[in-house]
Known about the structure:
By secondary structure, the protein is of the alpha+beta class. It has helices at 3-33, 43-50, 75-82; strands at residues 52-60, 65-72, 90-93, 99-101, 118-124, 135-140, 143-144, 148-149. It has one domain: Immunoglobulin-like. The chain contains 3 helices and 8 strands. The strands form 2 sheets. Strands 3, 4, 6, 7 and 8 form a 5-stranded antiparallel β-sheet that branches. It has a 3-stranded antiparallel β-sheet with strand order 1-2-5.
Amino acid sequence: MSRFVFVTIIVLLLVSVATFLVYRSRTAGQAAATGPGVEPISAGDLEERYGVRLRLLAVTAGGGMVDLRLKILDAEKATPLLGEPSKPPLLVAEDSGTTLQAPEGSMGEEIRLQDGQVLILLYPNAGGAIRPGTPVSVVFGNERLEPVLAQ
């Protein structure tokens, strides 16, 4: 086997492995949060059951960030969804399946939800996965909000 053929095979194997790893990293969070049988809830259900209103989901910072704003209508109801700072909501771009995670510590070390409070979370927009008009699901642990269009 010539040296050129050997190097070509090695390069193709490395590209295949890298592609597989990127695919797995993009879909790992989505599979856990939106597994089979998980029905999305409406914005009305989110407000009624959990006392949380989605105020904004918009691409900002020249496309490099996604701004998620949630208004707390009832802090007691919202605690199961947002009371754990180490588990901020995930954003899933429905057209590509890409899952965006808030940076670690983005909700602080301790969170005290209050009625009327607006939580502002900024997500790095990896690879420009979310653009204005992209349908996005917001995933809170085992609950997934039906897709909304990013602004």
